[in-house]
């Protein structure tokens, strides 16, 4: 038998193999509509075959991000989506045998990469009120901790971290020589950011992505923002060309047109507020924590709703986790999309 890394061999992974193209996709927190058509077509018209034949030039995008964040280009590492940023975090800074402290339930890839790179995942679980005990988080951070993960906001549940909490966690991690990764994949939907801690502490790495609000999940591009020392080490493990030409070009184009970002934010907000109003008016219990998603406690069983909505070509998210077994998660989008969802949801979930 050929050698297989035992951490990989024992790893359990799942994947969604069905095509989602013919569905209204409200299950993975993507923008189901995408970028404005006129804007996207203008971008495509500027693509030239000779540029596609070249390896991508990443410096112009890094420079734009540096100006946006008011930092140096040496503080930024482009990644193949946030997923790649998480991989670099574990590959470079994860000490095998030590702990990774995060909340649970949360983005599954933190647990996956913990196992893949031989670390011990120690999640602090939310209670039935979707609250996490800060003392539990603090007590989990000790000399055996390698990485602490803070998601701001956390998908699918949780309340926003406060400045006091984040500062305390970072300082406890710093005393124990642990890296703190602040995942802000949903930054554009949230009213808070902890970007300022990158300058204040030498153990903080901030992750962002173009996949959610910026609507190019298929392009796979994100970035790490941190101090130059940590970025230098992360880049050593990065692919030579971690992001492709199309991803770099469209990310640059979006940053050059901030009105597009404002338009995307306004449309999502309008749709979300419409859906929240409908849920309020019809007496639904729901949970919203400043991402582009809602948890809804349904009348019918979530799996029944999943099946019936899928039959109507609408995808939603359901969970096996006991805390979430009575809830569905729905991606929020513009008002037209939310009206379509609400019409079908109301029919399926009536008492």
TrEMBL record:
The keyword Amino-acid biosynthesis does not apply. Residues 23-335 form the Aminotransferase class I/classII large domain. The keyword Transferase applies. Keywords: Aminotransferase, Pyridoxal phosphate, Transferase. InterPro entries: Aminotransferase_I/II_large (IPR004839), PyrdxlP-dep_Trfase (IPR015424), PyrdxlP-dep_Trfase_major (IPR015421), PyrdxlP-dep_Trfase_small (IPR015422). Its cofactor is pyridoxal 5'-phosphate. Coiled coil: none annotated. Pfam families: Aminotran_1_2. It comes from the Bacteria. Its EC number is 2.6.1.9. PANTHER family: HISTIDINOL-PHOSPHATE AMINOTRANSFERASE, HISTIDINOL-PHOSPHATE AMINOTRANSFERASE-RELATED. This is Histidinol-phosphate transaminase. It comes from Paenibacillus polygoni. The lineage of its organism: Bacteria, Bacillati, Bacillota, Bacilli, Bacillales.
